[in-house]
Design a protein that fits this description.
alpha+beta, Cytidine Deaminase, domain 2, six-stranded mixed sheet, 4 helices
Length: about 140
């Protein structure tokens, strides 16, 4: 894992797409918006947001929403995914919080990840954390 400034990141465009996706989240129960932007090996970006359900097991995470959209369009190789999360009442991008993918999302991404796959976690408009998938899901099956 390493940290880099948001403003000079080569992946700012991917992070910005994740922020826009988070705005569309359906989260009436938790009030926590999550957006994901997935970069496929052909250079396309697929976005997704969390969609909650009163039957909590039917809730789907932003990362899997983005992945399912990409797969349904014939894109099966993922190079990177940016994840953004914040509470609905946040005052600015400076109040975002690190939002790590859950275990199911990590395994789902691993199914389609190319070896260089990495995950970008945004905390605010100042810094981001970048992980390899192996760091987040060691010895995946």
């Amino acid at each position: 894992m390493y940290t880099e400034p948001y403003e000079t990141s080569d992946y700012k465009y991917l992070i910005d797409a994740a922020k826009r996706a988070a705005e569309r989240a359906y989260c009436p129960y938790s009030g926590f918006r999550v957006g994901a932007a997935l970069l496929t090996s052909d250079g396309n970006i697929s976005t997704g947001c969390n969609v909650e359900n009163r039957s909590y097991g039917a809730t789907i995470c932003a990362e899997r929403t983005a992945a399912v959209k990409a797969i349904s369009e014939g894109r099966h190789n993922f190079n990177a995914v940016a994840v953004v999360g914040y509470y609905e009442n946040h005052e600015s991008d400076d109040t975002m919080t690190y939002c790590m993918p859950c275990g199911i999302c990590r395994q789902f991404i691993a199914e389609f990840a190319v070896p260089a796959d990495f995950i970008i976690i945004v905390t605010d408009n100042k810094s981001i954390k970048i992980y390899t998938l192996d760091e987040l899901l060691p010895e995946a099956f």
